[in-house]
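Reproducibility note. Readers wishing to regenerate the assembly model reported in the main text can use the exact inputs given here. Chain order matters: entities are listed in the order in which they were concatenated for prediction.
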Amino acid sequence: MTEPKRILVAMSGGVDSSVAAALLHEAGYDLIGVTLHLWDAEGAHQVGRCCAPEDRDDARRTCEHLGVPHYVLDERDAFREHVVDPFVADYLAGRTPIPCVSCNRTVKLTHLADVAERFGASHIATGHYARLERSSDGRLRLLRGRDADKDQSYFLFGLPQSTLERLVFPLGELTKPEVRKAGHRLGVPNADKPDSQELCFVPDGRVGDFIARQGLESKPGRILDSDGAIVGRHQGVGNFTRGQRRGLGLGGGEARYVLRIMSATDDVVVGHEEELYDQQLVAKDAHWVAGRPADTFEGEIRIRYRHRGAVGDITPTRDGFEVRFAEPQRAITPGQAAVVYRGDEVIGGGFIA
Amino acid sequence: MIYLDHHAAAPTPEVVRQAMADASSIAWANPSSTHRAGQASRQLLENARELIGQSIGAAPADVVLTGGGTEACNLGVRGLAKKRRIITTAVEHPAVAESVRHLARDGREVLVLPVLAGRPPAPSELAPHLSDDSLVTVQWVNHETGTLFPVHDYAQLCRARGARLFVDATQALGKVPIDVSSLGADAVAFAAQKIGGPAGAGACWVRRGIELDTVLAGGSQERGRRPGTLDTLSMVGFGAAASLIGLRLERKTIIAALRNRLEARLLALGAVPNAGEPRSATVCNVSFPRWEGAILVAALDLEGVCVSTGAACSSGLQEPSAVIRAMYPDEQWRAGSAVRISLGIETTEQDIESATLVFQQVLSRIKGRNLHQI
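Running the prediction on these inputs yields the following structure tokens for the assembly.
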């Protein structure tokens, strides 16, 4: 890798990207701060959320503190097209999408790779907790961040080698407490800012309300038990995800969980917790970070971001892969990413069918 | 740094800074106060009003001072609107366009004339729409392309038909000779920022005898037309800047030559020109295929060249140009790829040479890419 001289830093206004910028600045790089404006917050949701004006101001303040230029780029159209619209469509189809994966791939990092080239910058830095390592065949391998609790490699499996080649993760070797400490040491203005939400454009986590705000009619439907008996009614499938227990409105009695969402009929099927366990999954639209493995191999699979990972056999298929877990897994949820690891390395990932 | 964004704000000349520095120990006092401190401030304010009036051919009493160009435009448009039907163009500055939209929301009828490819409406195209209950509101010089509107011809028509005319001259001041006494408009708006004065100073000339509604509620300053204590210090800056307008106009041919040279170089580098003559000598607006304007502006800034995509926004976010979009409705790519390069009296030949090299360097970074890759 040639020594990066000018680096574009993707700055959300959060602590992580601010500290990433401060660390690179300390190391003597020529930085350009870029904040992507992805979404206009709605009404009462304008405060304390991604892309709110105060986040842009935080990013700007950090850049002013470091004495580096800062630009805001408007990516609202691309964000709606590539992230929000597919997200809403997925929910209405009964899946539980993970928009951060496609956001990183299309709107954020791949786009910023193009911007970096236009800015004469050789690299892009982000505040992701992940690491990159070059293997002997010349390809880059994507590794978990050192901080197991904050590791964000799960969201990055979709990046092509051409994008990885331009990336720098200054926080990859650090833990969150170390990052905050570095923030204080370097005088980063927002070092004590709380961590941001996982889903930036639905800060309150109420997806059903978000979908309603997009002007899409959520169709009410039936709640059925596994035998097909009607046990209740609901206001729209967007309010549910597999494994969910709360918010079903089924009253007291034994605990029941969402097992399936039948988007064709708008039915939600509920049942007992033990019915949530499966020992296999099928993933589509796979991306293999450093090439597609030829045969079945053993690895560790994470089926959602906050999943510790479970051992299983992975068999690549034409455009995806199949997993047979050693132990049954709870609530394998269509739409979420299944990301395959071997040790610390992200081998690849796909979307649960 | 090479500053080529004079249409956003012109640098403050030394004499203007000096005038403001000299005034600062007096200008704090409220010019409406009875006592001698207030009187001293009032004297500075009235001197400034006189200088501003002189620069536009107006009697000082007809100059309503405001807190900037946007306020002056609001006062002109909304102050003259009454119950009139509004006739405007598709490329007005937001200060006018939003004022008109505000009136439209109140149920006022609005006619928007197109300015396709930068061609201003001919007087004959305006004439059929005029009557004694219309208000024509039009800019003199377009802020993004420099397009010149035949405001004298419009004024003649308006007078003949008994229609009211508001002219937004914020971008025209210092770029074209202005004599409001012979123009024939009913109100004309100006901003100090475009001639090297402070951003918080503007003026609205109102023809004597014209009844103007106020936009703000408050005291009876400015003969009841603009409430609120005026910022004497800013007005001193405006006045000093206004006294230099003659110098700006004298430099017009030199600026035009520099602009033409820069434009020829940019066209050779693949730029597509937006809007042609008639236009102000101070600006060149071009679109670069395969570039987003906002990204090109940032890339140039990193190399020390200051230009813009058009109207600036406080959030730092640059939207595709509404002016270019309106001028080229069938070529939407132009608006997203447009860059405005505007020159002033400080611009040198060396600036143009250096800026050309920077453009060349930045544009070459994506050489060899396909046309469809933006």
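We highlight two features of this model. The radius of gyration of chain A is 21 Å. The helical segments of chain A are 15-26, 53-66, 76-92, 99-118, 161-164, 176-185, 207-213.
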